[in-house]
Amino acid sequence: MELVQVKHTEITKPEYYNNRELSWLAFNERVLQEAEDAQNPLLERLKFLAIFSSNLDEFFMVRVAGLQDQVKAGFNKPENKSGLTPKEQLARISERARALVSRQTAIYKELMMKLLPKENVHLRKMADMNEEQTNFINEYFEETIFPVLTPVAVDAYRPFPTLISKTLNMIVLLEQENAESEFREKVAVVQVPSVLERFIQVPAKNDEICVVLLEDIISANINKLFYGYSVKSVQSFRLTRNADLTIHEEGARDLLVEIEKELRKRKWGAVSRIEVRTGEMDDSVLQFLLKELEDWEAEVYSVDCPLDLTFLFSFVKIVGEGREHLEYESFIPQPPQDLESDENIFEKALVQDIFFNHPYESFAPVVDFVNEAANDPTVLAIKQTLYRVSGNSPVIHALKHAAENGKQVTVLVELKARFDEENNVHWAKELEQSGCLVIYGMHNLKTHSKITLVVRRRQSKIERFVHLGTGNYNDATAKIYTDMGIITTKKKFGIDATNFFNFLSGYTEKPNFHHIVVSPNDIRSEFVKLIDEEIKHHLKHGKGYFRAKMNSLTDKDLIMKMYEASIAGVKVELIIRGICCLRPGIKGISENITVTSIVGRFLEHSRIYWFYHNGENKLFLSSADMMTRNMIKRVEILFPIFDTEIKKRIMKSMKTQLRDNVKARIQDVNGDYRYNDKNAGDKCINSQEIFLKEAYRVLIDEE
User: Fold this and answer.
1) pLDDT per residue over 205-255, tens digit each?
2) Which of 75, 626, 637, 656 could pair covalently with 70 via S-S, beta carbons 3.0-4.6 A apart?
3) Which DSSP letter does residue 6 get?
4) Catalytic residue among 325, 397, 448, 514
């Protein structure tokens, strides 16, 4: 059979693609579904509400703010997949986001007002306090809250204050009784202090927990800030500002200084969203607020519950003490199957590749890998890329210790990792002060790859140990993100790793690598080649398929290539947690493609690419999603898996996830997601729970 020729115009129609931003909102809706799901423990449902809020904040700070900038600049060109203009995207985002926020409010009320009281946990208003609680709150206000508050008058001499993004504020209308009528009404702003806990626990009987929100306490005592004035109204609001950094790398003598400068600006970007409490804010006050903020393009959201539900993260920690039944059953990540507890990781790696499947298998051996290298007198050098690390990172401490021990330590710290820039600037300085050679990546590219190279000399022989992974060197997120990685001593991987770091740190053209494939550009080209080969194999032998798991799929070139494969009859099975611009099930275009999204206890983060190739089963792991930014704007690594047993484990995991009928949602031909419903009598398959049991070596009945 001949290769099917597909006309470019046949697969580029806007109706064949999902809009990126609306697809992201569909993902956040799946997060919200976890908060709605009564099968999840109560406090876990509250965490999902907080995650939904945090996600939405970032969405407005970056994606919505970017579209608003385009509208302000008069840019009206449709985006290249779904064909929507910036204004059209903003309109649809607004409609969808408001519906989701309304659902979030309903869930919040059910959980906080109906279900938590049954567990002796109460969120109360000031009017509900008894005498003992009122006295406690009054004393707490005088001793702790009042000294921190700063009322800011707004008049001809004192302009409206510039308020930091994501802070909670109150606008206060005042009246001065003895003033002339036209000067009687005054306005002031009071910021709810973010340095204080958002909720205050008050005395309660027995094992009851009773809390009051900080803003309610301030509101009840607001008159104490304005002696000589009567308070007409107190109305809370919250701003979300444009937080996308504009980093001018061209001509910047020091990228670290440039980023520090831009970070200071982030707090003061243009307002992209204003949140107000439903029923609190008069329209005249809102119009005054918009006028003072000088941003009429900002979206105004009226919310019928407390603003900024990210406070639920800390709330759950307090409530969870002694109420373990309201959270997921605790889980301790287990030792990797490839590594016995008493085995030396370096000696084992000399014998075979070592596979890691986090969080089911512990991240500790990866930290130990760097720690042992730091202390091993035969180790000459450690080289590592860092994109996001934890606040008190043991990996950072190990690298510093290695440099202090005289090792040659090279660390590429990506300063442009969004919302981790400040953290990474801090670590870069610490590493430099410890004697590490710190580099900041490549001009106009983010280094998103996850790779570590340890060079050891024993008996006059050089040994190279390479760790490659799909996730960050972050011991905290490794407990909740699903990621995979390997440690290998295969010679060509060691040569590739050496050349890769030299490519990043020096002046050299991109090397010809033996095994790894490196973006920008090369990974996309490799995917195109592999899909083309899969089509040829299928047309010659049949049974062609391509399976891939990733966070997001946005790259149009790769989507079109998958449409070509589908048209040729190749089966394409995708597991995509978040954004997916591909639309499956379109007759004659994508009817051989399925898209599954799994949202559950752990955040699906691993990137796996599996090409059948007439039974050869070419399998790759990667730091890269099939997103345009990963293909052309980042330094990423795609690496093959050669070990037969590791291949089997990864392929088995993908098959399990494709059978998931508990946490899996399936995208339909319209771009909407529905649960992968079970038929009557079907066994429940929760892939994450299965992997947990497998980590504990519990036998799984595979039907």
Assistant:
1) 888 999 999 999 999 999 999 988 999 999 999 999 988 755 444 444 465
2) 75
3) -
4) 448
- Annotated binding site: which residue ranges? 55, 388, 418, 481, 577, 605
Q: What is the CB neighbour count within 10 angstroms for residue 629?
A: 17
Show the DSSP H helices in 352-476 as ranges.
364-375, 394-404, 421-433
Mind listing the pLDDT tens digit for each residue in 573-596? Answer: 999 999 999 999 999 999 999 999
Residue burial 606-617, b: 16+ Cβ < 10 Å; e: rest: bbbbbbbbbeee
> Binding site membership for ATP: which residues?
55, 481, 577, 605
Rounded to whole angstroms, what are the CA distances from 411 to 126, 302, 414, 427, 682?
A: 53, 46, 9, 10, 50
Is the pTM value of this prediction over 0.90?
yes
- Closest alpha carbon to 302 in 105, 460, 147: 105
Q: How far apart are CA 239 and CA 532, in angstroms?
A: 49
For the question of residue 448 being annotated catalytic, the response is yes
Give the model confidence (pLDDT) of 120-175 as tens digits: 999 999 999 999 999 999 999 999 999 999 999 998 778 888 898 999 999 999 98
Tell me the one-letter amino acid at 250: E
How, if at all, do strands 408-413 and 618-622 pair? unpaired
Question: Residues annotated in the binding site for Mg(2+), as ranges?
Answer: 388, 418
Mean pLDDT of the chain: 91
Angle between helices 42-59 and 86-109 (to 10 degrees): 160
Backbone φ and ψ of 161, nearest 5°: -70, 150
